[in-house]
Design a protein that fits this description.
Elements: H1 17-35, H2 43-51, H3 56-90
Helix pairs in contact: 1-3, 2-3
Amino acid sequence: MTRTEVSPHTAAGRGAWPWVLGVVLLVIVSLLAIALGAVSLPFDTVINALRGSGDAASVSIVRELRLPRVLLAALVGAGLAMSGGALQGTMRNPLAEP
């Protein structure tokens, strides 16, 4: 292998598909978290409530209760992941190396 070739086993050769898969899974799990609860809502009702249309009760449930909770959970998870990665890099943990 020459220096210009990229091995498929290196970080640069992996491509973007793990990131795309992660984002798709995050969206699916977020929609599930918004739809399921004490009052279960169908997916079309959730989508309409996110757009601002539909009955007032479902819009209120989705926009005022469930959506802020899901967004906060995603932000907290991202913050914990970043702080864990920074801590492993700072402590020179071999798990943090590619």
